[in-house]
Write a structure and sequence with these properties.
Number of domains: 2
Largest sheet: 9 strands, mixed
Strand content: 15-25%
Bound molecules: pyridoxal-5'-phosphate
Number of strands: 20
Radius of gyration: 23 Å
Structural class: alpha/beta
Mean pLDDT: 95
CATH architecture of the largest domain: Alpha-Beta Barrel
Shape: globular
CATH superfamily of the largest domain: Alanine racemase
Distance between the termini: 58 Å
CATH topology of the largest domain: TIM Barrel
């Protein structure tokens, strides 16, 4: 479900006209729906109620403070991957006991601050990292809780760049090494191994890869138990797919029906790390038509938002539905929707059938809530766009549009060139 709907040919986010937000903040911008965020989070919480999971929203998919606060208000914790994300979690008053910290390259500074904050656990991705956490915790006189991220070596049937659970990927620890670590955990005096973690990839639309992974985990847990090794937590990661075009992804309930029996069998406390599922369809990217260009061969709708604002189409060939914010004409044209960036790869959509729009009209790029703003950049020296949160009839800018002052901040011409 999402709360972006047409009423009398005009797109609304909840009870707010998208065009009214454009009037207030200019274009382009990201727009998020509070109700949609809450709906997606509660769908997961309800479907998995039998194991009462700690749902740690994967902040890397969307780090907007309004989004984070909304989710925290409804009981979510956070899956973080950097100190910046930890700062954001603290800023909105997140419960440290609902924070898990992944990343293959945690630095000493990041590890120390996370230990001090008292997070639920680190998701550890390698033996050298475990040794490093142990060393830092020792220095601080603390015991750091960790979960070992295991690499179950299953293919996730998704885009190559977003599959993570095979031995070709940089993530996680292979099963044999994990077992060895668990047996030798007394060597790490300042570490408490609290659990195991898996995350096999992203935008996975069927339950089969999840089941394949969890079966491997169960087999592994049983072999650990037979050797007298016990852990407390199982973190099953994120990766649930959503609808961008014509996918038929499992619902939260389907997913729960498929894997709850396995999770219950483990008897472990469950952590989940959904990102895209919660926020993907809860956000849109709104952009304005600048020019309609016809080179005799092809038509281009040139808009003011580009690949620096939303890189998924360029980066992954990802499909986002594009719709006019106001449907004024029935006549359609087939056109590529392209941005102003000086790259052929700068497109939001190709060969789309759209109404014959005029300069100044607005387009909404749908399902842009996940891996949208967070992946934006200043490429071509463009200001990052604002992010706006809607709740019912209200809306607020939760992150301002950057200014040219922001863009030039910290830049100088070296003295020896003067
Ligand atoms: C990216 C990531 C997630 C979230 O993935 P989604 O596909 O957005 O649900 C969860 N856990 C880890 C470790 C990740 O790297």
């Amino acid at each position: 479900m999402h709360d972006f709907k047409f009423k009398k040919n005009e797109l609304y986010c909840e009870d707010v006209k998208v065009a009214d937000v454009a009037k207030a903040v200019g274009t382009p911008f990201y727009l998020y729906s509070h109700n949609t965020l809450v709906d997606h989070l509660t769908k997961i919480q309800k479907a998995f109620a039998a194991v009462n999971p700690t749902v740690c929203f994967a902040m890397k998919s969307n780090g907007n403070l309004g989004v984070l606060k909304t989710l925290a208000n409804y009981g979510a914790g956070f899956d973080i991957v950097s100190m910046g994300e930890l700062k954001k979690a603290m800023k909105i008053g997140a419960d440290p006991k609902k924070i898990v910290f992944a990343s293959v390259g945690k630095t000493e500074e990041e590890i120390a601050i996370a230990i001090k904050t008292g997070i639920l656990f680190f998701n550890v991705e390698s033996v050298p990292e475990l040794e490093e956490i142990n060393r830092i915790a020792k220095k601080m006189g603390k015991v750091a809780p960790v979960a070992l991220r295991i690499n179950p070596d299953v293919a996730a049937a998704t885009h190559n760049h977003i599959t993570t659970g095979t031995l070709k990927n940089k993530f996680g620890i292979d099963l044999a090494s994990t077992k060895k670590l668990l047996k030798e955990q007394k060597k790490f005096k300042n570490i408490k191994i609290s659990g195991l973690h898996i995350h096999i990839g992203s935008q996975i639309v069927t339950s089969a890869p999840f089941i394949a992974a969890i079966k491997k985990v169960i087999e592994f847990l049983e072999s650990l138990r037979s050797e007298g090794i016990h852990i407390g937590y199982l973190d099953i990661g994120g990766g649930m797919g959503i609808i961008y075009k014509d996918e038929n992804p499992q619902t939260a309930q389907n997913y729960a029906n498929a894997i709850l029996p396995y999770l219950l069998k483990t008897g472990l406390k469950i952590v989940m790390e959904p990102g895209r599922f919660i926020v993907g369809n809860a956000g849109i990217f709104v952009t304005k038509v600048l020019y309609l260009k016809d080179n005799g061969f092809k038509k281009f709708l040139i808009v003011d938002g580009g690949m620096n604002d939303l890189i998924r189409p360029s980066l992954y060939g990802a499909y986002h539905e594009i719709v006019p914010v106001k449907t004024t004409t029935a006549k359609t044209v087939k056109a590529d929707v392209v941005g102003p960036i000086c790259e052929s790869g700068d497109f939001l959509g190709k060969e789309r059938d759209l109404p014959a729009l005029k300069k100044g009209e607005l387009l909404a790029v749908m399902s842009a809530g996940a891996y949208g703003y967070v992946m934006s950049s200043n490429y071509n020296v463009r200001c990052r766009v604002p992010e706006v949160l809607v709740k019912g009839k209200e809306f607020a800018v939760t992150k301002k549009r950057e200014t040219y002052y922001d863009l030039l901040k910290g830049e100088t011409v070296p003295g020896f060139l003067k």
